[in-house]
Fold:
Amino acid sequence: MKVVPGEPAQRAARRVLLTGASGFIGAQIDAQLTARGDQVVRVDALIPEAHGPGVTPADGVHRVDVRDAARWADLLDDVDVVCHQAAMVGSGVTVADLPSYAAHNDLGTAALLAAMHDRGVDDLVLASSMVVYGEGRYSCEEHGEQQPPARSRAALDAGDFENHCPLCDRSLGWELVPEDARLDPRSSYAASKVAQEHYSLAWARQAGARAVGLRYHNVYGPGMPRDTPYSGVAAIFRSSLEAGSAPRVYEDGGQMRDFVHVHDVARANVLAIDTVTSRPAESWTTYNVCSGTPVSILEVAKLLAQASGGQQPEVTGDYRPGDVRHIVASPALAATELGFTATVAPEQGIVEFARAPLRPSVH
Structure:
């Protein structure tokens, strides 16, 4: 057994089944688990939206689909923990994507959980997302905390992108979102992530099992897929700059987000894997995985442009109806209960990301 500095020498190596093992985040989790001596059972369906067309599995990766988990349930034998990263990602490019989100995320998670129960695997770490919150947390200077409705198309068409107090119509200020905030999905992807959480909660209760959900905020870093509308915004900006074009920024660029480095996200998963087995039966807990340092979308585009020597961003005023204005997480609970605090600040990591290698669109 490999001894990792800072960890007790008696820690036994775990056998972890990792779905989405070939993906952007999954590959980083695999690397960290393997480096400390854990045994990783790697599975991935290698869907084109996440990996590009023509991809082939790397050595040691089982090309299987979570929707067919009952067919490959033997891979769960002797597994201690399942780390479920596999998903159809992105905000949903068109309404035609709805069946894909429901199939890969909803049905896939349900099928995996059923197979886990059949094989007696009782511990799960689930990749969730900030999108389950919908709009973030808002307050009015006069009327306190408010829950704004979805922004109207008429307001967006007029260039009014902020949320307003329903009592006085002032622009609302954003606040940090804790894990006990209401769930209010506003895109097909968001609806599917909420479904994954609900299936995991139901499974934990019905099976007497334990699950931890990690709500990722905007993940970026080396190895992000390029040139796909399902990529994160940082990779989309990068692709534009490399093509000699200005990054196109929606709305006015003032949308506040939390950008968290993929190495930190992987580390949060490792910490969750280490703690989920000690949780009480029938437990379900969620954590924000974030940097704790809010940054605007326009600032991200400017940092990337400056670091790469590319064109300055173009603020388009365009919008997508499923987008939310501000969503910034509270890192407090993850720090207290998981021992997770991000180590890469956005102003450092985004500048480094400007020249980091991306994953080709065709493998």
Remarks:
- The two ends are 34 Å apart (CA to CA).
